[in-house]
Specification:
Radius of gyration: 21 Å
Helix content: 40-55%
CATH superfamily of the largest domain: Vaccinia Virus protein VP39
Largest sheet: 7 strands, mixed
InterPro entries: Bact_Chemotaxis_MeTrfase (IPR050903), CheR_C (IPR022642), CheR_MeTrfase (IPR000780), SAM-dependent_MTases_sf (IPR029063)
Strand order of the largest sheet: 6-2-1-7-8-10-9
Number of strands: 10
Number of helices: 10
Pfam families: CheR (PF01739)
Organism: Chloracidobacterium thermophilum (strain B)
GO molecular function, one term: S-adenosylmethionine-dependent methyltransferase activity
Distance between the termini: 69 Å
Protein name: Methylase of chemotaxis methyl-accepting protein
Strand content: 15-25%
Shape: globular
CATH topology of the largest domain: Rossmann fold
Length: 281
């Protein structure tokens, strides 16, 4: 008689997955489920709960649910993560916007899902290079993430040399202080790049966030975020991005997320790498 495989999935996880989907817009998947199981096991043990009780408590408690979300939220990132996209930002998109905004001398950018800060600091490096000592320009970069620990890391502006290994050496030498050898202590990011960045703790699926944004934005980078959301969350988030984007502005998503963006005023840019959408003026 064949041996029936044991189902190792916690039968109480679905109620917690449902709560995370409702509050954060996340789509259940095997990667998320594995991370969730590990967090439930650890937290239940530390709180002296059985896993069934912990899942019920966490699903009903906003504070505990947020604690779970902070633990399992994905935070993979790097400087200039998709190089072709960032080259296009540097050579085409931002120079175009600088020319168009020459009368107001103001640019607003948003890193929606900034993790430990590499993405917004990459944007800051580009703008520092393009505008240099143009002190009459007002640059605002909003950087939002769900994880408090990630935002704390970003606020410190210190990165280990291994985190800088894919960064262009000229940029690394220009914007980081400290030794670049692999066993060196973390290098500190030049404070000039931090002056225009506003870090904010927020949930992108929370409608209150969108009601108090300092927009509209000329560029919104929401890269490798939509792919983790369920259908309704994707539609609501992209519709809100469409509203938050200034006419003539650009949305940048991960190259694998292009098919998730389906809004009338967000049009794929044929002249730019995959992942760019333009809102017509």
């Amino acid at each position: 008689m064949p041996v029936k495989k044991r189902n190792l999935t916690n039968p109480h996880l679905p109620q917690l997955e449902k709560a995370l989907a409702q509050v954060y817009g996340w789509a259940p998947n095997e990667t998320l489920r594995a991370a969730l199981q590990a967090v439930v096991t650890d937290k239940a043990r530390r709180l002296l709960f059985d896993e069934m009780t912990y899942c019920r408590v966490a699903a009903q408690s906003p504070g505990e649910l947020h604690s779970v979300a902070e633990e399992i939220a994905l935070g993979e990132t790097s400087f200039f993560r998709e190089p072709e996209q960032f080259r296009a930002l540097w050579r085409m998109v931002l120079p175009e916007l600088i020319e168009k905004r020459a009368d107001t001398k103001r640019l607003r950018l948003w890193s929606a899902g900034c993790s430990t800060g590499e993405e917004p600091f990459s944007l800051a490096m580009i703008l520092e290079d393009l505008l240099g000592e143009a002190s009459d320009w007002r640059i605002e970069i909003l950087a939002v993430d769900l994880r408090s620990k990630a935002l704390l890391h970003a606020s410190q502006g210190r990165y280990h040399p291994l985190q800088l290994r894919n960064l262009d050496p000229a940029l690394r030498d220009r914007f980081f202080h400290g030794s670049q050898s692999p066993d060196a202590p973390p290098g500190e990011l030049d404070r000039r790049l931090r002056r225009n960045i506003r870090l904010r703790h927020a949930n992108l699926y929370d409608p209150h966030l969108w009601q108090h944004l300092p927009g509209p934005f000329d560029v919104i980078v929401c890269s490798n975020v939509l792919t983790h959301m369920h259908y309704t969350a994707v539609q609501q988030t992209t519709a809100r991005i469409q509203q938050a984007l200034a006419p003539g502005g650009y949305l940048l998503v991960g190259s694998v997320e292009v098919g998730l963006v389906n809004q009338a005023r967000l049009r794929p840019s044929q002249a730019l790498p995959r992942g760019f959408f333009h809102r017509p003026e």
